[in-house]
Amino acid sequence: MTNDVEDTTVARRKTDDREHAAAGGGPAARAELSIADPAGPTRGVALVLHGGRADSFEAVRSRHLSPARMLPFAQALRNEGGPQGLAVWTLRNRYRGWNGPDMSPVQDARWALSQISREHPGVPVYLLGHSMGGLTALCVADDPQVEAVVALAPWVDGSTPAERVAGRRVLIVHGTKDHWTSPKNSLAYARRVEGVAESIDYISLQGAGHFMFSRVRLWNALANGFILDAYGSSAGAEFRGTETLRQVLPAAASLPVVL
């Protein structure tokens, strides 16, 4: 009997085709993309990135909580965006860790973006990441197809590059009770990218922790609403899922918006 968590959004999978040697004493693991294609032609792609830990060359498994935590986001995006041309690609990294200068998840996200570009050249891409995945999203936002980024409880500090989000719409959501990643650091990052990003919004969720158990519906509504709003602006589509975002995030809101 398996403990693996099933991804019900998957229509097809794409396995890492790069050549890898075993790293850090761990296995020669492969990244994997779970792809939920839309109804009709693909007019946009949401790329979903999971969290991890600072250092680990242990292979990521579907039963691990970090990738499983992102499945409800992917499912909701597929349910609402899929009928109007939004594909949802969910990346499972090779390794559980960031791994210092290797920046393992950044390599994997770059590979995923190259696969999107190969299948859908010129189509806008929207990044959604949690924790280490939030940092990864901010680091690969300079890909030319990326238009918007959502970083949930991102693992950032003063060294996180600001220029990668130049010209992108960015939303950061962080709980005030997060003891794994720093709300102070993410707010400082948001302030650094003002005037660099096309727009930067920061929402502080009172009483929420790192793993998004508290106020889970709001986490989902904000993240998916932002992606759908950005995609709708490009595709000329309207989505019900943007209502909560528009209610709580006024235009040109100052940093932070506290909820």
Q: Percent helix among the residues?
A: 25-40%
Q: Let me know the largest β-sheet.
A: 9 strands, mixed
Strand adjacency order, main sheet: 1-2-4-3-5-6-7-8-9
* Global shape: globular
Report the uncertain regions.
1-9
Nearest-integer average pLDDT: 92
- Give the total of beta strands: 9
CATH class: Alpha Beta
Description of the structure:
- With 259 residues, the protein is of the alpha/beta class.
- It has one domain (12-258): Alpha/Beta hydrolase fold, catalytic domain (Rossmann fold), CATH 3.40.50.
- It is 29% helix and 20% strand.
- The chain has seven helices and nine strands, in the order E-E-E-H-H-E-H-E-H-E-E-H-E-H-H-E.
- The protein has helices at 65-69, 71-81, 104-119, 132-139, 183-192, 216-235, 243-248; strands spanning 12-15, 32-36, 44-49, 86-92, 125-130, 146-152, 169-175, 199-205, 257-258.
- The chain has a nine-stranded mixed β-sheet, with helices on both faces.
- Strand 7 (169-175), helix 5 and strand 8 (199-205) form a beta-alpha-beta unit.
- The longest helix is centred in the C-terminal third of the chain and has 20 residues, at 216-235.
Please summarize what this structure is.
By secondary structure, the protein is of the alpha/beta class. It has helices at 65-69, 71-81, 104-119, 132-139, 183-192, 216-235, 243-248, and strands at 12-15, 32-36, 44-49, 86-92, 125-130, 146-152, 169-175, 199-205, 257-258.
